[in-house]
């Protein structure tokens, strides 16, 4: 009788991959959905005023549109990552993406009393997937906001910086929270690793794989005198120059 070879049980691996994919989608759309709800509600309130505050309602609706486009783009980009398709590259100015992220999170930053410092270098361009870069910066800023929630004895600060550092284009996101314990410095990038109740632990794993898919890297460090700093860097970049036409 022919022997029957036991087939390896692929289910746990598949389930894990599916679990990580589902966790990634849940993670990435959470923030844009929150921005949509908040701004749609604000828009209705502006319209209900007598007389209706049309300019404010229009501004709220513009954010609803941007956030829903961001969510759609993020789902597409995660799907692309899961299917291992190449990032959809275009050339854009990195400073603009940082500003777009801050615009989407402005209400939350204000609500949490976080003072934001922006320090932009010249308008360097990346040839990369813009939505994915936005995802990375948004996740880093959201982590900073969460790290600052426990800080009550000093003003909460978030510092965003773009610069050329060691020949690479670098975006840094620093907060003055409690920082990252040395023992966790590498584990924080593992999928599903989280120290937060209810955290999916997918944010930094997604960020690092996006950086690497673009030939870049993402590192964490200590901010001075308190807090954590994340450096996202890319070796290949160009300087934006106004077209002469
Ligand atoms: N700015 C920061 N300051 C201190 N610790 C941080 C910071 N950013 C990330 N971490 C640590 O890294 C861990 C992993 O972060 P990651 O974004 O991957 O998941 P999460 O934030 O825990 O969960 P989720 O993103 O689903 O809310 C966090 O749980 C936290 O311990
Ligand atoms: Mg996170």
UniProtKB/TrEMBL annotation:
Keyword annotations of the record: ATP-binding, Kinase, Nucleotide-binding, Phosphoprotein, Transferase, Two-component regulatory system
Question: What's its top-level EC category?
Answer: transferase
This protein's record includes keyword Nucleotide-binding: yes
Extract the InterPro entries matched here: HATPase_C_sf, HATPase_dom, His_kinase_dom, HisK_dim/P_dom, HisK_dim/P_sf, Sig_transdc_His_kin-like_C
Q: Which residues form the Histidine kinase domain?
A: 24-238
For whether the record's keyword set contains rRNA-binding, the answer is: no
Q: Which GO terms describe its molecular function?
A: ATP binding; phosphorelay sensor kinase activity
Q: Which SMART domains match?
A: HATPase_c (SM00387), HisKA (SM00388)
Q: Which Pfam families match?
A: HATPase_c, HisKA
Q: Which reaction does it catalyse?
A: ATP + protein L-histidine = ADP + protein N-phospho-L-histidine
Q: What is its EC number?
A: 2.7.13.3
* SUPFAM superfamilies according to UniProt: ATPase domain of HSP90 chaperone/DNA topoisomerase II/histidine kinase (SSF55874), Homodimeric domain of signal transducing histidine kinase (SSF47384)
Could you tell me which PANTHER family the record lists for this protein? PEROXIDE STRESS-ACTIVATED HISTIDINE KINASE MAK3, SENSOR HISTIDINE KINASE
- Protein name listed in UniProt: histidine kinase
Species of provenance: Duganella alba
Q: What is the lineage of its organism?
A: Bacteria, Pseudomonadati, Pseudomonadota, Betaproteobacteria, Burkholderiales
